[in-house]
Amino acid sequence: MNFMECKYICPILTSIDKQGNVIYEDMHKLYDNLIEAGIDGVLSGGSAGEFYAFTYDEVKALILDAIKYINHRGIVLAGTGRMAKSETISLSNIALEAGADAAIIVGPYYSACSQTDIFNYYDSVLTQIHGNVFIYNFADRTGYDISSDTILRLLATHKNLVGVKDTHPVLRHTQKYIIDIKSKYPNFTIFTGYDNNCIPSVISGGNGCIGAISNVYPKLCHEIATALRQEDLGQIKNLQHQIDKYMSFYEIYPTFNPIMKWALKEMHKPMQEYCKEPLSALPDKIKEKLSPAADILWRK
User: Fold this and answer.
1) Among 33, 22, 32, CA closest to 71
2) DSSP assignment of the chain, as one string?
3) Distance CA 248, CA 243 (A)
4) Could you tell me if 103 and 80 are in contact, meaning their C-beta atoms sit under 8 angstroms apart?
5) Rounded to whole angstroms, how far apart are CA atoms 199 and 228?
């Protein structure tokens, strides 16, 4: 089995000031740090970056800055999913024209969509977007799961649909995508959204991970991708144990964004702890309660 195409992409956190403005100097340092650590690219405007709390113009500025600053030193995926379909199409085309490698589109949330609804939505946006697109499947946030059959229906008519990010905690779900879709479209890219599922999903035939732990430990995540490319079983085993431990970042608080921002701030990385509403920075009393977990996750 050839794992040479394994990629690890960082869904980057967004450093903002107290008023909610992006601190671009911090973002540029973060991009440099990730690239120097060997991360293959970034997702700008993803869930980790709190895209849902930014206006259209704010997200557009964030994505365009990432494309310009990274300047082909790594992959740039643009998170362009908006509640209004017209904004999704517009933002995707602007990002692709500016040089993004692909747009990644989460489906509409709040509404309870059927598979027919999902197909019709993506069928429409894919027709109007002039470049490569990833589907972002995140049932815990959208309220519905995108089936393999729906993706296969879309692939039958849309050559610009090139991959999926599957943020599903159950490995078998991503494996089903791999089995059902890659048997017919072997070049279709399938990323897991959970860091602990990177290694087993790649072994099953997937293409890597778009996982948030790479914000805090980019070198470790690069080492995971490298070990898979080299098929180094001993190193793969060791790294799986490490990443399993760090999955507590997702578990010790209802949202991981403020936890990771707190960690990066304490690690003297270019990150402020402020979050876009409705999220907020962690108060001291919560930090005190979570201090034992912080000792394990980053204070060592």
Assistant:
1) 32
2) ---TT-EEEEE----B-TTS-B-HHHHHHHHHHHHHHT--EEEETSTTTTGGGS-HHHHHHHHHHHHHHHTTSSEEEEE---SSHHHHHHHHHHHHHHT-SEEEEEPP-SS---HHHHHHHHHHHHHH--S-EEEEE-HHHHSS---HHHHHHHHTT-TTEEEEEE--S-HHHHHHHHHHHHTT-TT-EEEESSGGGHHHHHHTT--EEE-THHHH-HHHHHHHHHHHHHT-HHHHHHHHHHHHHHGGGGTSSS-HHHHHHHHHHHTT-S------TT--PPPHHHHHHHHHHHHHHT--
3) 9
4) yes
5) 7
Does residue 283 have a cis bond before it (omega within 30 degrees)? Answer: no
pLDDT tens, per residue, the chain with 300 residues: 455 579 999 999 999 999 999 999 999 999 999 999 999 999 999 999 999 999 999 999 999 999 999 999 999 999 999 999 999 999 999 999 999 999 999 998 888 899 999 999 999 999 999 999 999 999 898 999 999 999 999 999 999 999 999 999 999 999 999 999 999 999 999 999 999 999 999 999 999 999 999 999 999 999 999 999 999 999 999 999 999 999 999 999 999 999 999 999 999 999 999 999 999 999 999 999 999 999 999 997
Letter for the amino acid at 37? A
Tokens of 109: 């949330």
Is 48:13 a contact under the CB 8 Å cutoff?
Answer: yes
The pair of three-digit structure tokens given for residue 212, joined into one six-digit string:
């948030």
Amino acid at residue number 116: T
pTM: predicted TM-score of the whole model, two decimal places: 0.96
Residue with the two structure tokens 């296969």: 152
